[in-house]
Amino acid sequence: MALIGARILVAFAIPPLVFAHEAHPANPPAALSAEERAFLEENESAMAKMMNDMAAKPTGDVDRDFVAMMNPHHQGAIDMAVIELRYGKNEQLRRIAQEIIVDQMQEIAAMKLAIGEPATDTTPAPTQPPSGPVASVHHHPGMQMDMSAGMKK
Description:
Layout: H1 2-22, H2 34-54, H3 62-87, H4 91-114
């Protein structure tokens, strides 16, 4: 009986969360600066990618399914932290964003190892410039940081 009540509660709680996410304006107001508009667009894109990637098909293995859903969630946090570093000016928030990147990368690696997958892949760390053509027109010299100093071995 409690399980049915919990399912009903979840069923009613989820739609407002979905609609709240959809309430974000797809096109920010024109009164915003170009930088703020770019920040909002990049953040919205990161959120949409995260939500899409978290919709993993069940495999029948609860642990693998958990990792399949959590990795995009953690990657979304990394992506949003990188966006904060690109546009944010508050030094305390920038330090927090750096910590988020390190912590979330470590958690992704730990989850992969826990299910027998390699901890790393061949993609560059989010603070490294991509090796191919850059899709974004935003380039901020000096924004690349060596995050390895904060990594636990």
